[in-house]
Each structure stands twice: as structure tokens, then as C-alpha cells.
């Protein structure tokens, strides 16, 4: 009798899961206008957190190859306070929104051989609502809520239990991800088989990252030798890193020297997130929220000629996500509810968020766990320069031992993709010519790098990769 009762309960649970999955299945993509059919299943919606009732919005796109065995990958955009749906539509997701708000396929989507879930985190960002109170916007709280989401996700999608899992993201995810990985290691989620993590252009340590700006500007021809030498002669390292974000914490002489550099930079006419790219001329870009003084904010995100993304891709994506039929299709709102305002970044979250000064203190336990890790930097990013990342890996921060020395790496097209070195389980790579959002500016090399990280260098060399095709 007990056996029958157990079987009945198990079947009932499976029925509930199946019903919830069906309710979250995305059966159509409004405006889809691509000759290639959608060849993967996708699910989207809001998952309530038992701890506080907040509804966390996610969009899962399953693998085009073998969704039943391919790994599960979580993607987090940064900010803090910016939506991962921007990563979905302008970097590594399967769809690209066009200027007329139709949708085409992204030939460089990362779900070719992986199941990718894009999470809007923390609550208050995008469709994840309601916002938290001010005291809950910390990296510790954000990690706890993300871990809680993952536990709920695995209950809704039990086929992903014990599957290989990778945590990935960029920018302020340099804080999000180490805090989350630390949380998952110290308070494991049942059924979550964490294998590794990857972070692009990671904002990791305020002092080390902030201390690299002036060096980057001068070394990339953005400021003069005169102003560079003046900063070198005037500013102490202990104060220089604070000048861009907290000018009141550096001496008047240093502040003036840094100000002279900023005046030379002429931020209004180029994009600090991709120094070699064109800018979107439709409108000023909405809040970019890394810890930079407002004078340093660029006009817009940009891309380069070898990518399917236009400089205004994020603008088109925002317009698309505000369409009522889109919000209903992805279950962001109830069937009978009116549309809501969706923003790329939440000013409320950004203002309330208590940023950590560093995530380096999370790395000792992460390194001991033996997780596979990839840290990568687009070398055309002036917001989180690769120089600072190199320094916290090898010198000023973790002081890791190099196990494979600095060398170049090639993409699948046999062109130079960047450089890198290895420190045990952590691989560091630069991507030549890529900006802050690497998949947007170097999509082929980003895809290749990601698949080599997940499947290994030998395996990815045997994968077929797309050639450049226009989606504009």
C-alpha cells in the first residue's frame, strides 16, 4: 500500500511539473521572420521564490544538438541592475531584433550545444518583480536569491538535475558569479552538478580594476603622453583608482590631473565599451551602471563590421520587449494583464545596490573546489580594461602561478583571436578587437571560446562553425 501511495505521489508530482512546463513553453516568437525554422524548445516565465514571494523571470532556450544530455548554462548580465535579456538579444541568444522589430536567428548563438537559461537578477530588474527593499540589494543577498531560483528551476525541470552546470556572465557578474559560486559550494543545491564558471570583462576589484584606467587610455592612443605623465607624477596608486568613481577621495592635484585626461578623451563621441566600434545615433544610451563617474558614460553600445548585431541592437531589443504580444508570448505577464514597462537597466536597483569592493575573497574556496574557470576580456573595453583583470589574476590580487605561459590562440577561421595564459584550473583569454560585450563584437571567436571551455580544446576543433552571413 505504501509503495502504491509513493508511486501515486510521484506521478502527481510529475504531472504538476509537466503542467507548469507546458504553461511556460514559448510556442511562438512574435515577428519571427527568418528562413530557418526554430529548431529547439524554449520556456520562459516567472518562478516565485519561497523565501519572499518574488517572481524571478527566466528564458530557457534548449540546445539545438542534444538537449537531453548537453550541459545547462546560466547567463547573468551585470550592472548591477541590468537585464540578462540584453545578453539574450544582443550577444549570445538565438534571436536578433531588427530595426523593424522583426526577429531573425543569431548564427552564433551559444545554445548550439548547450541549454542556456537567462535570468533577470536581482528582483526589480526587467520582468523579475517586485523590487526588494534597499537593505536586500547586496551581492550576498543576490547570490542567495539566485541559488534559490536554481533550486526552484531544477524542481520545475527535473531532467536537468545532476546535469553538468556552468555559471556564466559578464561585467558586474565579476561580483555576481564568485558570490553565487561561493554560495553553491557552501550551501549546495540538491541536484545541481556545478562544473565551472566563465566571466567576461569581469568587474572584480574596485582598486585593481580602477587603477588600470589611465594606463589603458594612454596605451590605446586615447590620451596624450603629457597628461599620462602628469598623472604618473601627481597621483599615488592608493588614490588614483578612486578618482573616476569617488573623486572626493583623491587629492585636488590628482583629481585635476585625471580630469585633464577625461577632457582629452571626449567621451561624447565614442563608446568606452568598445573603443573601435561605431555608436548608435538614434538616442543616448540608457544608464550604464558600472561604477564610473557620469562624465565617463558613453553614448551607446557599439559593434563592428563582422557581427550580425547593429550598434542600435539594444534599442531595438528594448522596443521589442515592450510589445504586449511579446510579453504575453514569453509569459512575462498574465494572459489578461496589460503590458508593463521593461527597461534594460533598473535605476531603482542600481541606486539601492550596495556594491562590494571586491570578490577576490571568494576565490580561495572556489580554487580549492577545483572548478573549471574561464576569465576572458575583450581588449577594446575601456570600462573594465583587461590590464586590471591580468593584475588581479597574476599579481596584485590572487597572485596565481602560471602553469601555461602567455601565447596566442586562433579562432576556427584560423585568424588570431587573442592571447592568454593558464593558472591551474583558471584560464585567462583576451579577445582581439572585442569590446565589453564580447559575443556582440566578436561572435565567432566568442562562440568558439565558449564551446572549447565547455567541451575541451580537442572536441571543439572538430565542431563546424558558421561563416559570416548577413542578418541585417
TrEMBL record:
- Supply the EC number(s): 3.4.16.-
Q: Which keywords accompany this UniProt record?
A: Carboxypeptidase, Hydrolase, Protease, Signal
Can you provide one Gene Ontology molecular function annotated for this UniProt record?
serine-type carboxypeptidase activity
- Specify the enzyme's EC class, one word: hydrolase
What is the superkingdom listed in this entry's lineage?
Eukaryota
Give the residue range of the signal peptide.
1-18
Per the UniProt entry, what is one GO biological process?
proteolysis
Q: Name one Pfam family in it.
A: Peptidase_S10
Record-stated family: Belongs to the peptidase S10 family.
- Name of the protein: Carboxypeptidase
Q: Which gene encodes it?
A: Aste57867_373
Amino acid at each position: 500500500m505504501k509503495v502504491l501511495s509513493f508511486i501515486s505521489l510521484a506521478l502527481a508530482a510529475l504531472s504538476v511539473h509537466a503542467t507548469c512546463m507546458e504553461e511556460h513553453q514559448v510556442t511562438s516568437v512574435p515577428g519571427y521572420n527568418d528562413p530557418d525554422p526554430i529548431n529547439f524548445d524554449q520556456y520562459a516565465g516567472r518562478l516565485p521564490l519561497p523565501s519572499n514571494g518574488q517572481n524571478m523571470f527566466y528564458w530557457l532556450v534548449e540546445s539545438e544538438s542534444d538537449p537531453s544530455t548537453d550541459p545547462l548554462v546560466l547567463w547573468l548580465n551585470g550592472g548591477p541592475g541590468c537585464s540578462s535579456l540584453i545578453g539574450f538579444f544582443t550577444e549570445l541568444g538565438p534571436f536578433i531584433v531588427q530595426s523593424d522589430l522583426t526577429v531573425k536567428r543569431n548564427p552564433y548563438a551559444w545554445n548550439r550545444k548547450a541549454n542556456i537559461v537567462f535570468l533577470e537578477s536581482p528582483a526589480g530588474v526587467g520582468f523579475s518583480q517586485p523590487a526588494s527593499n534597499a537593505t536586500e540589494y547586496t551581492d550576498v543577498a543576490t547570490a542567495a536569491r539566485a541559488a534559490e531560483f536554481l533550486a526552484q528551476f531544477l524542481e520545475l525541470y527535473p531532467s536537468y538535475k545532476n546535469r553538468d552546470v556552468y555559471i556564466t556572465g559578464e561585467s558586474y557578474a565579476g561580483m555576481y558569479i564568485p558570490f553565487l559560486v561561493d554560495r553553491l559550494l557552501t550551501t549546495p543545491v540538491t541536484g545541481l552538478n556545478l562544473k565551472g564558471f566563465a566571466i567576461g570583462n569581469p568587474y572584480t576589484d574596485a582598486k585593481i580594476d580602477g587603477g588600470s584606467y589611465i594606463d589603458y587610455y594612454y596605451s590605446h592612443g586615447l590620451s596624450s603622453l603629457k597628461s599620462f605623465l602628469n598623472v604618473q607624477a601627481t597621483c599615488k596608486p592608493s588614490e588614483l583608482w578612486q578618482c573616476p568613481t569617488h573623486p572626493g577621495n583623491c587629492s585636488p592635484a590628482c583629481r585635476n590631473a585625471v580630469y585633464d585626461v577625461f577632457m582629452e578623451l571626449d567621451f561624447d563621441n565614442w563608446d568606452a565599451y568598445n573603443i573601435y566600434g561605431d555608436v548608435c545615433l538614434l538616442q543616448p544610451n540608457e544608464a550604464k551602471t558600472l561604477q564610473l563617474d557620469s562624465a565617463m558614460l558613453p553614448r551607446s553600445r557599439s559593434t563592428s563590421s563582422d557581427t550580425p548585431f547593429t550598434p542600435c541592437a539594444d534599442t531595438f531589443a528594448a522596443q521589442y520587449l515592450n510589445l504586449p504580444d511579446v510579453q504575453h508570448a514569453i509569459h512575462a505577464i498574465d494572459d489578461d494583464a496589460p503590458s508593463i514597462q521593461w527597461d534594460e537597466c533598473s535605476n531603482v536597483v542600481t541606486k539601492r545596490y550596495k556594491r562590494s569592493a571586491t570578490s577576490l575573497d571568494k576565490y580561495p574556496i572556489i580554487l580549492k573546489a577545483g572548478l573549471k574557470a574561464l576569465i576572458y576580456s575583450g581588449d577594446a573595453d575601456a570600462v573594465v580594461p583587461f590590464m586590471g583583470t591580468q593584475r588581479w589574476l597574476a599579481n596584485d590580487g590572487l597572485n596565481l602561478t602560471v602553469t601555461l605561459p602567455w601565447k596566442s590562440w586562433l579562432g576556427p577561421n584560423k585568424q588570431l583571436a587573442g592571447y592568454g595564459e593558464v593558472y591551474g584550473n583558471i584560464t585567462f583569454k583576451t579577445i582581439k578587437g572585442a569590446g565589453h560585450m564580447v559575443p556582440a563584437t566578436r561572435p565567432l571567436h566568442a562562440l568558439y571560446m565558449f564551446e572549447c571551455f565547455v567541451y575541451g580544446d580537442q572536441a571543439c576543433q572538430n565542431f563546424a562553425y558558421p561563416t559570416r552571413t548577413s542578418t541585417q
